[in-house]
Amino acid sequence: MPVPLLDLKAQYDTIRGEVDAAIRDVIERQAFIMGPEIPALESAIASLTGVGRGIACASGTDALLLPLRALDMVPGDEVIAPAFTFFATAGAIHNAGGTPVFVDIDPTTFNITPEAIEAAITPRTRAIVVVHLFGQMAAMEQIAPIAAKHGLAIIEDGAQSIGARRQVDGVWRTPGQLGTVATLSFFPTKNLGAWGDAGMMLTDDEVLADRLGRLRLHGGAKQYHHDEIGYNSRLDSLQAAVLLAKLPHLDRWNAARRQNAEHYEQGLAGIPAVCVPRVDPANEHIWHQYTIRAERRDELMAHLKGRGIGCAIYYPLPLHLQPCFAHLGYTTGSLPVTEAAMTSVLSLPIFSELTTAQLDEVVGAIGEFYS
């Protein structure tokens, strides 16, 4: 039985009428750029996350770039970030004028650790990018005091964690509530995905929110008046309409992903060669990816693909070893936990429309390989 890594058509089939109607509304009005869907989406996402302001932008990458740009960095300014994440995290740091300082991760959650952050801080450090990887949050209750002690901004890269929560002092917290600003990506493969690129920034800082709103519009709050040089990072109304139609389903989709993760955990428990992902007890995971660590990973991946089962490696080459960052001086062995992860991780299908039969097919194929 074929099992795709992701099946967006299966999702569309369940919401076809709602999304098609939302798109038709935009077409009828012919307001394709910064239409009324934009503030509606900003308000809805801010309400969902419990953060004061949402500022929509053209992509998840821009959602990272604009807050970093707002730091007004000068050459030599450093920004700490994990090396085990998607390239946009570091690319945005560089493009905003900063120097990425890569640090290691926790071997079980794959998230950046407070200890690694504190050890990397220098007089040149301006900010920390905390990536909430694969759908669960990092230890923000420990990271935020470190940032406050050193006067550093925190950019929470929440591209993979919309709907994720972490319990801090008995209260559920979301990305954006404990940092300076959080960023979201609505790339089509995300738990809440548009039909193209789309992103958002979240912050409780009203002054920063206003500036981010200007930066996405060529640096001006008023048409043809520019307070600074900004960017063209407007969100299309069509993408906002799609997201507004999908948003009421997000909790259900995330709950289904959690059920699928439980199915995998039970099914893979008797295979010693497979280490299932660990959920920090403080977290409510949304399972953007279900990433195992596996012995003979590459052979297992070939076996699964031979059976028609989708799988992928996130990420095969960490950021500190990318050729474009060779000038920073990192070498193999610089970040051993990250480098161990890149040789063993494998992500399995986890999308909400998976059937029990499909989940069993994946588990059975893995068991067959190791038997």
Short description:
This protein is of the alpha/beta class and 371 residues long. 38% of the residues lie in helices and 15% in strands. It has helices at residues 8-29, 37-49, 60-69, 88-95, 114-120, 140-150, 206-215, 237-246, 250-268, 297-306, 336-342, 356-370; strands at 53-57, 78-82, 99-103, 125-131, 153-157, 165-168, 171-173, 181-185, 199-203, 274-275, 283-284, 290-294, 345-348.
What does this structure look like?
With 371 residues, the chain is α/β, with parallel strands linked by helices. It folds into two domains: 8-102 and 109-248, Aspartate Aminotransferase, domain 2 (3-Layer(aba) Sandwich); 249-370, Alpha-Beta Complex (Aspartate Aminotransferase, domain 1). The protein has helices spanning 8-29, 37-49, 60-69, 88-95, 114-120, 140-150, 206-215, 237-246, 250-268, 297-306, 336-342, 356-370, and strands at residues 53-57, 78-82, 99-103, 125-131, 153-157, 165-168, 171-173, 181-185, 199-203, 274-275, 283-284, 290-294, 345-348. The strands form three sheets. A seven-stranded mixed beta sheet has the order 1-9-8-5-4-2-3, sandwiched between helices. Strands 7-6-11 form a three-stranded antiparallel beta sheet, with no helix packed on it. α9 (250-268) runs parallel beside α12. The longest helix has 22 residues, at 8-29. The protein is globular, with a radius of gyration of 21 Å. It starts with 7 loop residues before the first helix and ends with a helix. The model has no long low-confidence stretch (mean pLDDT 98).
